[in-house]
Amino acid sequence: MTVAVRVIPCLDVDAGRVVKGIRFTDLRDAGDPVELARVYDREGADELVFFDITASAQGRDTTYDVVRRTAEQVFIPLTVGGGVRAVEDVDLLLRAGADKVTVNTGAVARPELVREAAERFGSQCVVLSMDVHRAPGTPSGFEVTTHGGRRGTGIDAVEWAERGAKLGAGEITLNSMDADGTGDGYDLELIRAVRGVVGVPIVASGGAGTLADFAPAVDAGADAVLAATVFHFGQLRIGDVKARLSEAGHPVR
Amino acid sequence: MTRVVVLDYGSGNIRSAERALARAGADVEVTADFAAALDADGLVVPGVGAFAACMAGLRAVRGDRVVGRRLAGGRPVLGICVGMQILFERGVEHGVQTEGCGEWPGVVDRLCADVLPHMGWNTVEAPDESLLFAGIDPGERFYFVHSYAARSFDLAGARANEPVLTWATHGEPFLAAVENGPLSAVQFHPEKSGDAGAQLLSNWLKGVS
Fold first, then answer.
1. Closest by Cα among B183, B207, B201, B203 to B84
2. CATH class of A6-247
3. Fewer CB within 10 A of the terminal residue: chain B, N end or C end?
4. Residue A45 in contact with residue A7, Cβ under 8 Å?
């Protein structure tokens, strides 16, 4: 009756290999993104995110190959981001088999990238991802950062989300740089603040540590919950996250 | 082996549709070739993005004519996502009306919902007589990503057979699937809907060969 809350594992990929440590016992090759994608698919992931941290152009070709091979074997939505600076990057990733492409720093540098990508490929495949930290000087108290949260941009995060949606982003991913890695839960105030100004789906990211952390993010207005470490290290299983969400009254697949 | 053409008219990620159909047992070719699309046992019309852009792309490869010619001969066609929407009379996006293929009566319009696009896994209400959803658990979810949909279906204007209508709800009820003789269409992405989607494609292929 209602669209299910999506539970999304995120994999960091460098030159075709998964870089954050993965602790699954039944894997032949824990560094192979395609094999991990299959595992998460079996575990009930509703979507997969590949975050490409590859620096070299040569390495990026490997990424396209990974996307291609994953799309051939895993039949759930695949979102790919990292280093997307131009519409041509979006095109290459979509052609490789990505369903959605995430823009982040490239959109901060040139907001028109969002509009250009949405006009050419449709809003449904353009995700605006933002790395946000709390900064008292900004109107909303949240500021957009770059360089993994180390560099402030002076851009108000809530205003940026609103502008991104107007430019044509079909979804917004909120990475809380304060919460990321703490395991203390998602930044609920951030989610609430952005929910108040955008009508596109919101993906909560950063801070998930226990099963109890997911439902509050949805209550705050998130349509999907993303996590990396807790899934990769086997601390939490996707099925258990969904069971807890369901207990809290949220529909899951 | 059932030969299926996935019509390649420049619309988004069609690799997944190709692979999912192959997995379901079809011999798949991705092409815009008129004769090949006409000749195949089954034709799949994918589509993502804007109605107007898809319709323009479809016309550029004479896809609308292929669909019409196939249906005149009772040969199966499956529309997916915007590939479903363009089968209706017209689409309205940002106040601009675009003429569709007109195989079905009615208008594709923006959904009234708090959050759009409708992005994610949702349930559908398939009637018992549906062939596409045969053997699929009623609680199964399919992957949707769209902001526009057909919200009504005028039975009087349907093609020869009475259509089987499957509904879903996001903010308001809309058509998730239509089965109407040789012409079927789904608003969701079966190629992205895991095992349930694979079952649906396999069901469609059974009616094709």
1. B183
2. alpha beta
3. N
4. yes
